[in-house]
């Protein structure tokens, strides 16, 4: 645990001078610069950000650690079929869907930038509790998701950790599917 | 601090996906295959906006024996993703990389600069293709229908958005921005986009793909106050929370709300669904909540303001007697009959006037008929359909806003387009669509266009335009500087 914390701090430091920082400054997405409407604890998005950014550094310098530490995720697709894949700590669930070439139609349309709700996933309560804090911006997007539940999250905002090993994530049915099944039954 | 990191995280996510075409390709679910076999089923899609591309994507994926041709009136693709999505929402435009993968698919072909209904008829397309999917969107503007709507200084939001987004037909709009107060009629996301663009510090906009022409005009703008007017109450507001939060957080602006319009709102909140509840809570907090010190100081220093005005319907746009320009709006004061989504605005008889020099009407887009052979419901302004199958017209389908009316976010259009594609595939498999006889597809349409002097723009032609726009943008520190003129686009495509 101490190692993880230290790594996090270290990475946070290197991040300050990394090109990613330049990318962020140059990013035209400025609207979240100040958030008086925010109800989050101030550190919440910082933690998530540090977690997500960590991935980049692990990919480049800690290959061995990665392979030793795979996290198993069971996706349940729209047909109720279970698909089990393994990902690396720090990868987001959206990354995992892309890397593993999982065929969830339309998943991740905005490419993980919190501008749509197509990577909506549903968890059981126990897993949901472990997923960490949720930002207002993620909640805002989730509010537009079909079949929103109390344990819904966006896959692009969930980064894998060892603690999540064996988790189940369900891809919700789209409204079209629901309507179609109703249509055929009538 | 934490918010900056949110931005950072987004940028990080972006950089990973932008650098890897393979990932995007997989994300799309469309795997490019060799063009060794010729597809037997010919489907064409009319309109290269999100509905057209999502329909094509699903068709290509679900059926290995289908060729999909996309016809687009303009030389450039992507419809409202290019001309509707606000310039300061670049993340939403990421869908373009998936559309690009679809357009480059070996069984997909893009034909820009083809005006269906004029250059080629829907009947001709139906002759050449097994199925025709109409997804040309909603290019009309619903009018408010009050006296003074045609005055100088009144603009439909669609045109105003088209102007700052470089839609060729709106590039000469040159809206007058030499007044202090602007009134926007309507409270949907388009209304909030317009308000945000009017009030955003130019330093923020200049890093976006907003056209230089409109950026220059906005830099000279005198507009300091924007009122966003709706006929019903806070619980019925049409915008989504993301857009509202952007207003709340917009630098150098402060909210200017009317506390009394929120009476009873907090009490009514306990039974509403979460999205409506969170949206309303943010409004309440902005309107009534005493701001924290930091926010109080921010508001104090702000030079511009925005406000929501509820329970008001426009009666007349008033003219300045000397110049014939807009001088104000006369509004009827309403009360609500009933509760929730189904409630109705009923005039109380009271009337008030708001002084303003600019009026933007933003009460919705509407689809227009393009060809008399296609059934059209003028009241709903849609093509009547069942799950995308046009009623009483076998082989004809519709998707996107033409199918549902102009509502929802991009995910809504995505689902509704997948849905239509699903109907097409189902009909092919069930034998409802006769695919046994060979159809010529684009080889049947090409000679017709040629005869009529229409030269289609291919997707690689578009990529030339794209490259030039990116190059021009780079010179100004913008992601793109759009070409504003169709002739110039065509010239660039043919270099």
Beta fraction of the residues of chain B? 15-25%
Q: Work out the largest interface and the residue count of each chain.
A: A-B, 68 and 71 residues
Helix content of chain B: 25-40%
Q: Which superfamily, in CATH terms, is the homologous superfamily of the largest domain in chain B?
A: NAD(P)-binding Rossmann-like Domain
CATH 2nd-level architecture of the largest domain in chain B? 3-Layer(aba) Sandwich
Number of helices of chain B: 19
Specify the number of helices of chain A. Answer: 8
CA(first)-CA(last) distance of chain A: 56 Å
**Number of extended strands of chain A:** 5
Beta fraction of chain A: 5-15%
Quick structural gist:
With 186 residues, chain A is of the alpha+beta class. Chain A is built from eight helices and five strands; from the N terminus they run ααααββαβααββα. At the A-B interface, α2, α3, α5, α7 and α8 of A face α1, α2, α3, α5 and α11 of B.
Describe the structure in your own words.
The complex is a heterodimer of chains A (186) and B (495). By secondary structure, chain A is of the alpha+beta class. Chain A has helices at 2-16, 19-26, 44-61, 63-68, 93-99, 125-130, 136-142, 175-185; strands at 71-76, 82-87, 120-122, 152-154, 167-170. Chain A contains 8 helices and 5 strands. A 3-stranded mixed sheet of chain A has the order 2-1-5, with no helix packed on it. In chain A, strands 3-4 form a two-stranded antiparallel ribbon. In chain A, helix 1 (2-16) packs across helix 3. The longest helix of chain A has 18 residues, at 44-61. Helix content of chain B is 38%, strand content 18%. Chain B has helices at residues 2-18, 21-28, 50-62, 79-83, 95-103, 122-128, 157-164, 189-199, 202-205, 212-219, 241-249, 265-268, 274-287, 293-301, 401-404, 410-430, 442-451, 459-475, 486-493, and strands at residues 41-46, 66-71, 108-111, 131-134, 140-141, 154-156, 181-185, 225-229, 253-255, 304-309, 312-319, 326-337, 344-355, 358-361, 365-366, 385-386, 389-390, 396-398. Chain B is built from 19 helices and 18 strands. With 495 residues, chain B is of the alpha/beta class. In chain B, the strands form 5 sheets. A 6-stranded parallel sheet of chain B has the order 6-14-7-8-10-9. At the A-B interface, helix 2, helix 3, helix 5, helix 7 and helix 8 of A face helix 1, helix 2, helix 3, helix 5 and helix 11 of B.
């Amino acid at each position: 645990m101490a190692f993880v914390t230290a790594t996090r701090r270290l990475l946070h430091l290197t991040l300050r001078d990394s090109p990613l920082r330049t990318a962020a400054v140059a990013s035209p997405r400025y609207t979240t610069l100040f958030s008086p409407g925010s109800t989050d604890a101030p550190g919440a998005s910082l933690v998530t950000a540090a977690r997500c950014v960590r991935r980049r550094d692990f990919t480049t310098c800690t290959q061995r650690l990665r392979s030793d530490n795979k996290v198993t995720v069971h996706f349940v697709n729209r047909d109720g079929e279970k698909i089990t894949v393994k990902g690396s700590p720090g990868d987001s669930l959206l990354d995992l869907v892309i890397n593993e070439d999982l065929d969830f139609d339309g998943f991740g349309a905005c490419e993980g930038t919190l501008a749509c709700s197509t990577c909506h996933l549903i968890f059981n309560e126990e897993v949901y509790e472990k997923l960490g804090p949720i930002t207002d911006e993620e909640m805002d997007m989730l509010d537009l998701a079909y079949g929103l539940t109390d344990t819904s999250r966006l896959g692009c905002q969930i980064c894998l950790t060892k603690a999540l090993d064996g988790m189940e994530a369900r891809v919700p049915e789209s409204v079209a599917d629901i309507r179609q099944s109703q249509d055929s039954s009538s | 601090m934490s918010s900056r990191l949110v931005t950072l995280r987004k940028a990080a996510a972006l950089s990973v996906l932008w650098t890897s075409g393979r990932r995007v390709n997989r994300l799309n679910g469309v795997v490019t295959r060799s063009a060794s076999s010729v597809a037997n089923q010919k489907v064409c899609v009319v309109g290269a906006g999100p509905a057209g591309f999502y329909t094509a994507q699903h068709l290509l994926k679900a059926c290995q024996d289908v060729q999909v041709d996309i016809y687009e009136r303009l030389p450039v693709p992507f419809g409202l993703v290019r001309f509707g999505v606000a310039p300061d929402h670049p993340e939403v435009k990421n869908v373009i990389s998936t559309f690009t993968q679809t357009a480059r698919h070996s069984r997909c072909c893009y034909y820009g600069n083809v005006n269906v209904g004029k250059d080629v008829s829907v009947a001709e397309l139906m002759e050449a293709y097994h199925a025709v999917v109409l997804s040309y969107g909603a290019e009309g503007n619903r009018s408010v229908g009050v006296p003074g709507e045609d005055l100088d200084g009144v603009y439909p939001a669609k045109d105003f958005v088209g102007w700052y987004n470089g839609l060729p037909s709106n590039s000469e709009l040159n809206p007058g921005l030499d007044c202090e107060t602007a009134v926007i009629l309507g409270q949907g996301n388009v209304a909030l986009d317009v308000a945000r663009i009017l009030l955003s510090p130019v330093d923020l906009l200049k890093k976006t793909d907003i056209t230089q022409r409109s950026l220059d005009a906005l830099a000279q703008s005198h507009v300091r106050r924007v009122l966003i007017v709706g006929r019903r109450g806070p619980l019925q507001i049409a915008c989504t929370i993301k857009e509202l939060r952007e207003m709340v957080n917009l630098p150098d602006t402060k909210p200017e709300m009317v506390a009394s319009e929120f009476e009873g709102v907090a009490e009514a909140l306990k039974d509403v669904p979460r999205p409506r509840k969170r949206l309303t809570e943010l409004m309440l907090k902005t309107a009534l909540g005493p701001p924290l010190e930091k926010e109080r100081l921010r508001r104090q220093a702000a030079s511009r303001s925005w406000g929501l005005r509820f329970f008001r319907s426009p009666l007349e746009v008033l003219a300045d007697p000397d110049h014939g320009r807009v001088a104000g709006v006369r509004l009827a004061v309403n009360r609500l009959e009933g509760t929730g989504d189904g409630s109705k605005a009923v005039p109380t008889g009271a009337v008030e006037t708001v002084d303003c020099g600019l009026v933007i009407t933003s009460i919705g887009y509407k689809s227009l008929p393009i060809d008399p052979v296609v059934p059209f419901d003028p009241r709903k302004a849609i093509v009547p359909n069942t799950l995308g199958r046009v009623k009483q017209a076998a082989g004809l389908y519709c998707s996107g806003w033409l199918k549902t009316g102009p509502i929802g976010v991009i995910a809504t259009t995505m689902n509704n387009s997948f849905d239509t594609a699903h109907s097409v595939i189902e009909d092919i498999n069930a034998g409802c669509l006769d695919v046994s006889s060979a159809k010529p597809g684009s080889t049947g349409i090409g000679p017709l266009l040629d005869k009529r002097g229409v030269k289609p723009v291919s997707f690689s032609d578009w990529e030339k335009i794209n490259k030039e726009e990116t190059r021009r943008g780079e010179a100004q520190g913008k992601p793109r500087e759009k070409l504003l003129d169709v002739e110039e686009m065509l010239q660039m495509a043919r270099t």
